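Write out the 3D structure for:
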Amino acid sequence: MLRTDVNDTIATPLWLVIALVVALSARVVATIYDKLHPPTESSVIAWKTDYKPIDVLDAKPLLYYFSARWSASCTRMDQETFHSTDLVSLINDRFVPIKVVDRSIEDGKNPEAVQSLVDKYGVSSFPTVVLALSDGTYIASDDGFLRRARMNRFVKWFLPMEDFCAGREAFARGEFATSAECFKRFMDRPDSKKDKDLLSKYRFAAAWRYIALKCIGRNDEAKKELDEAVQLNSSEKKWPYPLLLHLAGREKYDNLRKEDRPEMNADMAILKYAEHDEQGCLKYLNSVLPNTAYRAYTEYRAALFVLHQLPESVRAPLEKKYLF
C-alpha cells in the first residue's frame, strides 16, 4: 500500500509491482554482465580520428560519429550502442568509422579540422551519426541517442543502397564509367529486383546506367540491359518506368511529357550528348537550365556537366543566358 500525506491509502496494482521488479532485475543483470564481460578488442569499433576521405566514390563508405564529452547521450552510446558485437562487426567490416569529438564547450572553439566537418555536415547536436560515400559525399544522418536496434536499422538501411548512391553521385558528376559499374553492382543484387522499396531505385539505376553506357560508347550492352529492365515487373507503372519505356523506344516523348517531370529533359539532354547530337542537346538544355530550383537533382547536375563539355561556340550563349 502507498500512503499519501493525508493518511489516505492507495492500492498499488500487482502488475505494476511485478513490472518494476522485472525491470530492476534486468538492469542489475545487465550491469553485472557488462562488468564481467568487458568489450574485447574485436568488439570495439576501430574509430579513426584523423581520416581524410579519398577521391573515389566506390570504396568503403564513411560512418561519422559526432560526439562531445559533456553529452550524457554520447556516453550512453559509447557504453551501450557501440558495444553490440554484431553492430561493431558490421561497422568495422563495411564502413570506415570516424569519431569526431566536439571541443567547442571546453575550449571555446574546435580545432579547424573538427569544425570543418561540423560545418560540412550541419551538425548542431550531439550525438549525431552521418553516413557518407568514400569521398565524403553526404548520404544520411540521425541524431540523438540511438539505441542498438535503431542504429542497426539505420546502418542496414544504407547497405543495399551503397552502390546506388555511389552510382547516382558519379552520374551527377559526369563520371559515367564509374557510374555504370556502381549501378551494375546494385542491379545485380537479388533484392534490388524483388524488394518493393528498392524496385524504384533499380529502375532509376537501369535508366541512368543505360545513358551512362551510351556516353562511354557501350551501346549494345546498354540496349540489352534496358530491355531486361523494361520487362521486370511491368505491372508497376510509377516513374521512372515511363522513362525506361521511352528509352527502349516503346513510348513517345509527347506522351512522356504528360508525366510533368522537369528532370526528364535533363536525361534527354545527356542522351543527345551521348549521341553526338549537339542541336538536340541544346534544345533540351534550354528546357533544363531555367529550372534552378532543381539544381541539386542528379539529372540537373549531370546536364550541367554535359553543358561544359560542349564546344565553346555552342555552350557560350547558354552560359551567358543563364549566368554560368
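Residues 162-321 form one domain.
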